[in-house]
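Researcher: Predict the fold of Phosphoinositide phospholipase C.
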Amino acid sequence: MLCGSWRSRRRQPEEPLVPAQVATPVGLASPPSSQEGNIKRPGLRALKKMGLSEDEDVRAMLRGSRFCKIRSPTWQKERLYRLQEDGLSVWFQRRIPRAPSQHIFFVQHIEAIREGHQSEGLRHFGGAFEPARCLTIAFKGRRKNLDLVAPTAEEAQRWVRGLAKLRARLDAMSQRERLDHWIHSYLHRADSNQDSKMSFKEIKNLLRMVNLDMNDMYAYGLFKECDRSKNERLEGPEIEEFLRRLLKRPELEEIFHRYSGEDRVLSASELLEFLEDQGEHKATLAHAQQLIHTYELNETAKQHELMTLDGFMMYLLSPEGAALDLAHTCVFQDMDQPLAHYFISSSHNTYLTDSQIGGPSSTEAYVRAFAQGCRCVELDCWEGPGGEPVIYHGHTLTSKILFRDVIQAVREHAFTVSPYPVILSLENHCGLEQQAAMARHLHTILGDMLVTQTLDSQNPEELPSPERLKGRVLVKGKKLPDTRSENGRILSEREEEDEEEDEEEELGAIEQRRRAKQISPELSALAVYCCATRLQTLRPPPVPPQPCQVSSLSERKAKKLIREAGNSFVRHNARHLTRVYPLGLRMNSANYSPQEMWNSGCQLVALNFQTPGYEMDLNAGRFLVNGQCGYILKPVRLRSPNTTFDPECPGPPRTTLTIQVLTAQQLPKLNTEKPNSIVDPLVRIEIHGVPADCARKKTNYVLNNGFNPRWGQTLQFQLRVPELALVRFVVEDYDATSPNDFVGQFTLPLSSLKQGYRHIHLLSKDGASLSPATLFVHICIRS
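Model: Structure tokens for Phosphoinositide phospholipase C follow.
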């Protein structure tokens, strides 16, 4: 009953909770049937729930299309592509058949769909095809673009529209809807004869597919309890009952009943009490009522301003119930301070898609970096044929791309994700003539985007704010002194280029180095607010250096300064931009930990964006907040020119972070080709901050359960500088004889971590969503 007399709730003592339910779309898409027009009707339930089963574009995608896949002038092959009945994945044909999981891609992993010749591949190799027939599917992470040519313009448009509808519907789904969609897609695959009935053998296959090794006797008992017709087959309502029991969340039920009492519903005042216990100190009764109207599924309960268990689960699985503070997902920081007061998302060797020895260079690498919120990209500029400068990693086998093509990519993509300024970090190895060509391309292609003069005539040397520079492009490069010859000059040893270019000399680039010492007036004039200068000393000079001077340091030199002159380096970075880059010895484009550099206030901590790993996880976590705009305001102690802060000597602990790791839900299956391969998950929590705060602690592992493992273990951390700390949640598959396998992770700033019972929505190694995979934890922060 939803109305009547309400009995007073008796609070029960806190207890460890129980497991949960989640995992990413990891199932194997079946290859299409031999008849292209055949659509399997039993599997369309998922699309019906998405409201797209009757959509003409989606139906055309279900039938499949034969595209011409473009890779090069000579590699252009016809391939069949077909949307799967789950609406989550697309099956595609390969010349040599591989494992089923190698024949699909997931809609949720698509970054963008571009029409016409809007990719590097189609611009170079698709000229013979009319743009109306061409489309590019760009993916998140390291997966290469898919450049396709449809038989007709209408067929291309059907896929462009259809994929857009599927992506929009997927983005609009609640976590509960995603879970329902996910489990029914597996149910369809487990129904081997497609009769919409499930035998016990098919149920066992389903359990293995969703990463759960359930005891046969227990599983069969559950099966029999749901088999009301007593015919050893589950169908219709019986299947739904089985799934309901399978997806049960005992730990959420326990929390719900603790606040709702015997009435088994939450009134608005009871929900408010839960919110206050969660640390939502600004919550009001009106806010609790609004949550009921937003998340409650039962209309009768909603009318009486009551929340049922289902509504409570909807709320806790929503972004409002997540660990990341929802208020921090938009731009909420002061954006009117000087550039030096911000951490700025920065890329090293941006043009590379692989290693720095022989990997390909591509303008698409810049597009991907911008899509990840990067605001400082690097251009290694070298002499090219025909008077056109090129970009590549000099003296290696990496391929070359035209400088002008990169600047065109900057114009088209720099501000698609963030409106705040982009810095082009030029590593210049060109002679005067091609430097002038570079300046000409910057002017003609970028136009008004390019900053060519100071914004404030009263304080021309002061760094402007990100807000004042919205939509603008800055050039970081060498600046000629005012007393220069009109045709450029050779710099003195004192003014030599920074250490990054010094490393090139070790490769024997004597002639190139001589040319790089020459700065053309045209290019020099574009270094307005980011004048590259070698950092000679941290001792205060008689005349303070101008804020527009930017130093570039290798990770080794930056670490040396942190170690030997910690506070002086922090003070320097309070007024000047400092760029840090990986050692040249990292031939495979490996990364260093950016946290040590952030601790000292370095703004432009450049990483190889093409190389996944915990370092890029930290970078993504640092820039996850403030609207993912690529700019994060540094803590106060890193912005004051007179600060006494030294990251090596941070003082005593000030904050205690306690995390109870409760359960996980639907963790992805790592080996989709082996039905019996089920993860043994453990959770590790890492703190990345000043050296004294860095720590990692882990739970025990749970044997053979990636579906709803339970831990109920508490991990505690003492923090000295909480405003610099990042918290990284990692799930691994335990292995007694070899390193654990990565399952998923999520990283965020401690300052954006909400207290109370929260879900952590896990990400893949490439940063893609693993929805519906989550961790369920309880967080307590005490200062």
